[in-house]
Structures are given as structure tokens and as C-alpha cells.
Design brief:
- Keywords: Flavoprotein, FMN, Oxidoreductase.
- This protein has 16 helices and twelve strands.
- With 388 residues, the chain is of the alpha/beta class.
- The chain has a single domain, classed as TIM Barrel (Alpha-Beta Barrel), CATH 3.20.20.70.
- The strands form three sheets. It has an eight-stranded parallel β-sheet with strand order 4-11-10-9-8-7-6-5.
- Helix 1 packs antiparallel against helix 16 and helix 15 crosses helix 16.
- The radius of gyration is 20 Å and the shape is globular.
- Bound molecules: flavin mononucleotide.
Amino acid sequence: MPVITCIDDLKRLHKRRTPKMFYDYAESGSYTEQTFRENTSDFAQLRLRQKVAVDMSGRSTTSTMIGEKVAMPVALAPVGLTGMQHADGEILAAKAAEKFGVPFTLSTMSICSIEDVAEHTTKPFWFQVYTLKDDDFMRRLFERARAANCSAIVITVDLQIMGQRHKDLKNGLSAPPKLTPASIANMMTKVQWGLGMLQTKRRFFGNIVGHAKGVSDPSSLSSWTAEAFDESLDWGRIAKFKEMWGGKVILKGVMDAEDAKNALSVGADAIVVSNHGGRQLDGALSSIRALPSIVDAVGDKIEVHMDSGIRSGQDVLKALSLGAKGTYIGRAFVNGLGAMGEAGVTKSLEVIHKELITTMGLVGERRVADLDRSNLLIPKGFEGDWVD
Ligand SMILES: Cc1cc2nc3c(=O)[nH]c(=O)nc-3n(C[C@H](O)[C@H](O)[C@H](O)COP(=O)(O)O)c2cc1C
């Protein structure tokens, strides 16, 4: 087995072992990919303040997210088609998260269904929903999530229409993959992946196929989005979904301080500062640059989480130091899954945990709750100096 020391090692293996269509689906952003690139490069602009001769013994990364104990404040983000990166991918990722002690978020657009994941885990997980036109379908989704003992709903508010990813169109992305000479030739080089897929029955959108009425082609993400997603979504409707669910709600995809205040007013329990990993509004600020102003606006009234661009424990530490109470990883765990299945997801979490706890020591902190902006060197103008 190769020596894995960082998320990039897993990414290389992921690329080698997974069909191009699905690797490209994960490793891309919308349009010019400016926001996708800056999500990671902006983390590098922040530097860490080294502290020496501070007692760093007994460090701990434990914390809470929406009142739930976590081994470190790093949840697995909802990722569509995870079960195409590796057979039964959502089940494997959920198991790895449960064993590690971090939250797992299941996407509506998953291959394994809510019931599948519940059957293979013992602790509550979180369920992500898109806001759809069909209230009956939404109500049924909530009922299924309740029956599966999900402890929170993550409502994604930044994808009523889909940002275009050029590679997905060129590759003809679908689940299961359409068989063309090019896709067959590529899949034939991914033997382990293919054997896994032959052995599982989970190859379709498990939460949708057989549950949604009148959707003609759920194999294609873009056609399902165009047909089912509600372009008229507003804050009133978000409040209605919160009431329909009746439990804890995390609103994902907030990038603006005014929107964060609206999230507060509809009674959300947490928000995720997120630009969907650079997959939606190309040209939006990176999440890490948007984070400080949102923390300043609402951070004392609502739990602020963040994602987009995290590839290391140092990145997690930077987000926490800027005031996030929790973070999420998307591609970083998908790279692990595509590389080595459940063991790979565990490896992603181990890599990030080790980097986080080591870096905490080197900046002279023992608890994640003690991290703050004094641990960082923030370049002047980091948040941007924009014309009103
Ligand atoms: C391949 C892929 C699929 C995704 N699918 C979903 C989804 O179904 N629902 C959702 O809310 N976010 C989805 N996201 C966004 C992630 O939840 C998260 O915001 C993003 O991955 C964070 O950026 P990172 O990958 O740089 O960590 C997806 C991201 C990726 C990379």
C-alpha cells in the first residue's frame, strides 16, 4: 500500500482508480472555475502565528456542532453521486464518519438511500435537502429522514438552478454511467471500481427513483434540477420547510451578511458559509474570505459553519480561528473514498485530524474553542475592499 501523508496523495489515487466521468465531476467548479480555485488559494493567503514555550500538552480537538459532540469540528459535507465514486459510497463514508466521531451528511442526490444508510449505521446522521416544488415529495423526504432517525436537516439554498460544469457536459455525466465507446474504454481500466459496481444493486438515485412522481429522467442531474427544483424559493418558503421538518435546521450556502441575518430570522440553528465548493456562482468570493464578515454580523447569535476549499487540518484551524464553530469537507473525503473506499475516508479524517492537532500545538493552543483571530496573520484587505 502506498504511504499516504496528505489529501493530495488520496486525490492522485482517486484519479487513477475511478472512471474519468466521476473523478471530473468531483474535481471541477462551474464555468471558469475562478471561485473553485480561489477557495483553496485564499486559504494560503492566511498565515499562522507561531507561539513557542506555551504548554501544549493534553491537546484535544473535541467540540460540538449544533449541540452534538464531535471528535473534531469537521463534518462530511453532502456530496451527490458519492455511490458512483465507489460502490456503496454513502454507506462506507457514513460508517467511517461514525467510527471517527464526526457528523455525516447524506445528500438528496445520493446513490444509497436514507434507509440504506440508516440500516448500516447506529448513530443519527444529517440529511441534506434541496428545496423542491413538490411539497408532498418534501414532506415524504422529511418523514423518511425522521424514520431514519436523522438528527438535523441541512437545507441547501444555493442551488435552485445549476451552475454549469463544462466537463460534466463533455463527459455525459449520468448515474448509472451511459455506455459509450469512450466511457466503456475508460471504465475497463478501473477494474476494482467495476467489480464493486457489479456486486452492488445501488446504482441509481436511491432517494428519488421510485419516490418522486413525474420525473422523466432522474439519471441526469441537470434534467432533474430543471424539472424539480423551485426557482421561486424565498425566505418564507425556507421558514415553511423548517416548520415541516420540526427539528434542527442548518442552512447551507450563505455567503452574505444580510442573508445570514435572514437565516437567523427564520430560526435556523446554524448556517454554512459555503459557495458549494465553487460549483455554483463562479466569481463569488471564496468562502474563507466571506467568513469574517458573516461571523461579525451573526456569530454571537447563531452557529456559523463553513466549507469550500478545506484540504488540510491547517485549513480547518484557519476557519476556526476566523470564528467558524464547525467545518465540512467535500472533495477531501471523496478523494479518500475513490482511492480506498471506507479505509480511504478514514484516512482523510486521520490526515486532517493529525494536521489539526499538530498545528494547534505549534500555534500554542490546546482546545479548538480557544482558537481566534490572534492565531492568524491576516493580510490587509483579505476580505476585499469593494465599492458600495
Ligand atoms: C462532487 C460534489 C457533489 C456535491 N453534491 C452536493 C449535494 O448534493 N448537495 C449539497 O448541498 N452540496 C453538494 N456539494 C457541495 C458540498 O456539500 C460542499 O459544499 C463542497 O464540496 C465544499 O467544498 P470542498 O469540496 O472544497 O470541501 C457537492 C460537492 C461536490 C464536490
